[in-house]
């Protein structure tokens, strides 16, 4: 949580939002990390449009605030949050700017070139799609926020048979896939997938 270090010295209580929190795993891990670093005055909110994701988050992590809401209409006051997380999720920069405090930070995580490359190869070759590029996403972020840092994180995540189906369902790569596509990919014994991310930190 290097990007939040300046806030530690300025704020006695941090207010954080995970915009597009899914089932809450990322926000829970972030809270644990901050608590381990001694940040105990902390209010965290997870927001997602998926009611199923929010229900799952509330059951698994009952001590955090969770809400079903649209990024285009965040149900929060102006300048309410010191940190906004947006992890592999759509963005609404106008709303992020509105709800972010003047000295707050936005942390956005986007895929890099080799993110899930083992699956991308299958889909991109079959559908004759060009190789993935995040240049437009990065440029748009820089149009709205002053870029403080951009850190790339790349590693391999080991798989087993039980993880293959959830992995296929969580990635947009499978959107529009036919039944034959599903069958082909599920029969492939992938020992791992590549995780390749770019972590952007910005301020207003």
UniProtKB/TrEMBL annotation:
Keywords tagged on the record: Methyltransferase, Transferase
SUPFAM superfamilies: S-adenosyl-L-methionine-dependent methyltransferases
Record's keyword annotation contains Methyltransferase: yes
Domain Methyltransferase positions: 17-89
Gene Ontology molecular function, alphabetical: 23S rRNA (guanine(745)-N(1))-methyltransferase activity
EC id: 2.1.1.187
Transferase listed as a keyword: yes
A Pfam family: Methyltransf_25
Protein name: 23S rRNA (Guanine745-N1)-methyltransferase
Species annotation: Paenibacillus peoriae
């Amino acid at each position: 949580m290097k990007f939040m270090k300046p806030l530690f010295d300025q704020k006695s209580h941090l207010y954080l939002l995970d915009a597009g929190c899914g089932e809450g795993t990322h926000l829970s891990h972030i809270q644990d990390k901050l608590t381990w670093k001694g940040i105990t005055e902390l209010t965290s909110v997870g927001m997602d449009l998926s009611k199923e994701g929010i229900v799952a988050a509330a059951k698994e992590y009952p001590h955090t605030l969770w809400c079903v809401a649209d990024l285009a209409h965040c149900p929060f006051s102006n300048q309410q949050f010191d940190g906004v997380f947006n992890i592999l999720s759509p963005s609404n920069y106008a709303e992020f700017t509105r709800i972010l405090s003047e000295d707050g930070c936005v942390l956005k995580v986007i895929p890099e070139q080799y993110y899930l490359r083992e699956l991308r190869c299958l889909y991109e070759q079959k559908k004759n799609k060009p190789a993935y590029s995040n240049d437009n996403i990065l440029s748009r972020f820089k149009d709205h926020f002053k870029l403080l840092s951009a850190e790339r994180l790349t590693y391999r995540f080991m798989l087993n048979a039980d993880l293959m189906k959830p992995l296929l369902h969580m990635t947009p790569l499978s959107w529009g896939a036919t039944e034959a596509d599903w069958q082909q990919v599920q029969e492939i014994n992938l020992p791992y997938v590549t995780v390749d991310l770019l972590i952007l930190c910005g301020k207003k």
